[in-house]
Amino acid sequence: MNRIRRVLQMNQPAPGPVRALPLVLLAVSILSAQPTDAHRCASLLQHQTWLTTQVQWIIEEPERAAFLRLKEPAECDRFVEQFWQRRGTAAKAEHERRMQWAAARYPELETPRRLYVQFGPPDEIESHPKEGYEAWRYRSLPGKEKNYTVRFDRKSR
What we know:
The chain is mainly alpha-helical. Among the domains are: 38-87; 108-153, no CATH class. It contains eight helices and three strands, in the order ααααααααβββ.
């Protein structure tokens, strides 16, 4: 009978601080872990910000994959520089202008910001303030049908 009690007590959680030890060890290992080589650049704040908030709608998937494979901050800086060199100074200025306009006009709505940044201003805008929506029409977009129309809710604005 005593043996059974000892076995059962072994399965009981340890009291107080001893019970928390596995959690403490887990937290220390997570906090001290270095980013993997494949994602080192994306883990640096400035590069992560560039990838996720500045070029997220215009970077091509092969470019994104190549960027995520970079290991050193200097390589990431060179990649960003070459990214804009391939597109040209005018394209960078236009991208920045579109980002600013879209963020100011549609701060809480991702769809119109993304469309405006990717494709520029629509050919037509139907605004329906009473109904709380806008419809944007593009006559021609790469990979889309002619007269592509997107409708989005403006009530949250």
